[in-house]
Amino acid sequence: MTEAKHVDECRGVYDFLDQVRLRSGMFVRNGSLLGLHFMLYGFRVASAIYGPQAVLDFERGGSFTEWLWPRLGRTHSSPLGWAIEITKVAQVANRASIDLFFDLLDEFKAERSPEVR
Fold this sequence. Notes:
117 residues
C-alpha cells in the first residue's frame, strides 16, 4: 500500500490518485467523484500550461475513459462523462462512487501495467 506523502512528492497523476485514495476526505469534499473529475480537469489545464499533459487518460477518448465504457456495459462514450456514469452505477450498487472509481482504476492499471504506474 502506498504511504501518505506531500503532493509535491508525487511523480504523476497516478501517484497523486494514490494519495487521494489514502486521504480522499482531505482532497475531495464529501467523497464527490464529480469533484475529483473537476480536480483532474484542473490538473490537465495546469499541465497544458506548465508542463506535460499528464491526465489525458481521463479525458474524452483517453485510455481510461475508452477502457471504462465497455466495463460499465456501454457501447459508446457518455456525454455526461465518466464521473457521472460511475456515480450512477455506484448508486444502483449502493456504494460510494469514489470507492467504485478506485476499484475501477485498480483494474485499469492492472491491465495496463506497467505503462500507467
